[in-house]
Amino acid sequence: METRGKFSFPGGVHPPEGKQYSQGRPIEVIPNPKQVVVLLSQHLGAPCKPVVNKKDTVKAGQVIGSSDAFVSAAIHSPVNGTVKDITLAPHPVLGRTMAVVIDVDSSQNEPKLPVAGRFDAKFDVSKWTSEQICRAIKDAGIVGMGGAGFPARVKIEPNPAMPKTILIVNGCECEPFLTCDYRVMLEWTWQVLAGIRLTAKAAGVEKIRIGIEDNKPEAITIFNNAIETLGNEEDIQVVPVKTKYPQGGERQLIRAVWNKIVPTNSIPPVIGACVVNVATAAAIAEAVVFGNPLTHRVVSVTGRAICKPGNYYCPLGISVQELIDYCGGLTETAAKVVMGGPMMGFAIADFSTPLTKTNGGLTFLTRKEVTESKFNQTQTACIRCGRCLAACPEKLNPTKIAHAVKANKLDVAQEQYFMSACIECGCCSYVCPANIELTGYIKTGKLLVARARKKA
Amino acid sequence: MLSKITVSPAPHISQPLSTQRVMLDVLIGLAFPMAASIWFFRQYAVLLLVCSVGSCLVSEWLVNVLRKKPNSLIDLSAVVTGVILAFSLPPAAPWWVAVIGGSFAILIVKMLYGGLGYNVFNPAMAARVFLAISFGTLMTSWTVPATAKDEALKKMTAANTHATTQATAMAWSKASLKGQENAVEVSKFYRDSFFGIEGGCLGETSALAILLGGIYMLFRKTITWRIPAAVLIAAVVVASIGWLIKPAAYVNPMYHLVGGGMMLCAFFIATDPVTSPLTVKGELIFGAGVGVLIMLIRILGEYPEGVMYAVLIMNALTPLIDRATRLIPAGGKPHVQ
Asked: Which residues of A touch B321 (CB under 8 A)?
């Protein structure tokens, strides 16, 4: 069977994959911590407002935060317990945001892995209507679990103005080190497939394509076999794509799998595509079939600087420190803790930061890896070598944008070099021989533009 | 524990590549023609290389000290400038010419503009022009390579009555244009030019050695194929026009390719990232411009060789080319917000 990825996009980079630390470790369940801190901002869009009060008793799966905004997703408690406080807590990206602190009731049963065998080839999607599926997704507070955290319901719900024709499932996991999606694909194949089929039904698409990078031949094979068992009822195919970063960026994946380009500053539905991650598909199956909200997810704890790397099924709200303790602690050489993968993740210093819905990994980098990385070295002048232009998957001119931002010429950065088209993948910074943090400058520039717009 | 943890923007890993490594690769590429130049010109080559590189390094160090800037010598760019400058000097040039050239290249052309990355003109080429203007006679006296076989020398003298003063390939080509030589006869020597058994600038004589260095840099991805290919193709096209019309006056395009500074320019001078455009289209335009200008100067100009002027003119146009070839994002221009 063909597992070589012929499909790809122009640009991009190929960093060392680093999957060896955790790809062989089966998903393992983490016992309940003593306390969880559930952030009320775990998605793109309006943050939730708490709907519980201090000292309230909460049950696992109970809504603890919600919002009336269209682009938002409800937040649920992952455990039985008592609300200890509603307060500011460290957020991996946003600094400090509101969170519900829950003391976990120690008498409850320990969490169990979703049992394999609940889903199989006989799974019948005709039991649910599109509306029922969309409602279940909304009620479960499901968001895109690949990283951006766009509320899944908004993405999937049919929109007469923009009919969707294709569902592209993202099983690339192009981010180095992370293996959570890979393990989910291997171990929860039928659940993922059920979620994919439910999503396709809800979105009303004609065909389904599952993009998987060719460095995961086992995942490609297992899905191909499963689809074969399924029969030919739906137009569903696995597309092996080239192992290249950012192959799993939705714009890049659409280009690789479907050979269509999403217009700049636009979203996939505009051209009739819907992209969901494999972990999101698994969560959708869980929500639609069993009514379970999104309160747990698989997280890769990986890197050379953690004693026991692996893939863990964790409650959302568990702190980084607790995960570190469970995984045997940091090694002597630990120098950087990244929430997410090394290309797009966020480095944190406060280990009380809790896990969120979008967080697929914790990467622990060693002193050596950090020193070898350019950001510990002096930044020198741009030698105009053009490597960032060649690496940019969106065909931008990163060095010109970064230098315009540095010179505070935001209009030049936007109007001449189209800063807003940047997807912040980090390829330009990765290749820069002068150690310039191009992505950092561009992100800053976008923030400054957003701030100026708010003021105006 | 916490104090040892670093925080910085993503990405947290990077390609093990530095400016220093890029320059080192250029130097490794330059080692091929350097070996050829030392083989052909012996002590002359060593002396000029040492003086040129030495003066570049001392000048850069001096500016760093005066401006209280961190030491920039380790990026090796000054060494690259020094080597290329030495390569473009006549082998018999006195040592102090190299010292003056190196100092001018670094002090005036590079550091006054702000150092590596900010210079508008290729420092070695600007210094070469400065020297050509200041020391006209010294810069046009050529030596026959130490290894030239008697046989080849005889051929040279037989074919060229002005051998002692005009021994370079490009001088012969010029003489043909003026009707003093037969271009068909001159063109027969392109093989000697390819291996480097001819008179000419220190590092420019052996096209073969330069090609090997260029291939190394292409292999290491230090340069792309775009600028060298554009320079060479454009030059061949222009050279072919004359050659096809009147082969007795215009030498074979092959002769133009391997003779003079064409090869060194295509692989090592025009490819200087700082002074060439950023975009793919821009690089092609820049390379083609350099190739065409070299040939126009060689054929229509008063000088036998045009590399330095061609490169400087295109350097000046680089910002305009960059602006004219601005990239459109993959998803098209964003709608006006």
From this structure: none
Instruction: Enter the pTM of the model.
Output: 0.91
Contacting residues of A for B14, CB less than 8 Å apart = 372-375, 429-432, 435
User: Across the interface, do B12 and A345 touch by the CB < 8 Å criterion?
Assistant: yes
Looking at chain B, the whole-number percentage of residues with pLDDT higher than 90 is 61
Residue B204 lies in a domain: yes
Which strand (E) or helix (H) includes residue A347?
strand A346-348
Collect all residues of chain A within an 8 Å Cβ-Cβ radius of residue B9.
347, 375, 429, 437, 439-440, 443
For A164-207, the pLDDT digits (tens) are 999 999 999 999 999 999 999 999 999 999 999 999 999 999 89
Residue whose pair of structure tokens reads 């099983």 in the numeric block:
A171
Q: Terminal CA-to-CA distance of chain A, rounded, Å?
A: 57
Alpha-carbon dihedral sign for residues A390, A393, A396, A398: negative
Residue A383 pLDDT > 90: yes
Cβ contact A439–B10 (<8 Å): yes
User: Which of A147, A141, A191, A154 has the alpha carbon at shortest distance from A170?
Assistant: A147
Measured CA to CA, the distance from residue A435 to residue A429 in angstroms comes to: 7
Tokens of B58: 């001392």
Per-residue pLDDT, B178 = 79
How many Cβ atoms from other residues are within 10 Å of residue A84's Cβ? 16
Q: Are residues B171 and B313 in the same domain?
A: yes
Return the residue matching tokens 């010429």: A409
CA atoms within 13 A on the CB side of A350: 11
Residue that finishes a domain, picked among B111, B140, B169: B140
Beta strands, E only, A7-130: 27-29, 35-39, 49-50, 57-58, 63-66, 75-76, 81-91, 95-104
Helix, strand, coil abundance in chain B, percent, nearest 5: 65, 0, 35
Helix, strand, coil distribution of chain A in percent, nearest 5? 30, 20, 45
- Write the Ramachandran bin of A117: left for phi over 0, alpha for psi from -120 to 50, otherwise beta: left
Walk me through the domains of chain A, giving residue ranges and CATH numbers: 128-290 (3.40.50.11540), 375-455 (1.10.1060.10)
pLDDT tier, A448 (very low <50, low <70, confident <90, very high otherwise): very high
Condensed to tens digits (0 to 9), the pLDDT of residues A78-117 reads 999 999 999 999 998 888 999 999 999 988 888 888 777 7
pLDDT at B165: 39
Query: Residue B4 domain-assigned?
Result: no
User: Do both B308 and B161 map to the same domain?
Assistant: yes
- Token pair for residue A414? 């936007």
Q: By percentage, how much of chain B surpasses pLDDT 70?
A: 91
Chain A CA closest to residue B223: A385
A345/B116 CB distance under 8 A: no
Select the residue from B1, B3, B13 to test the A interface by mutation, using most A Cβ atoms within 10 A.
B13
Q: Is it the case that residue B157 has pLDDT exceeding 50?
A: no
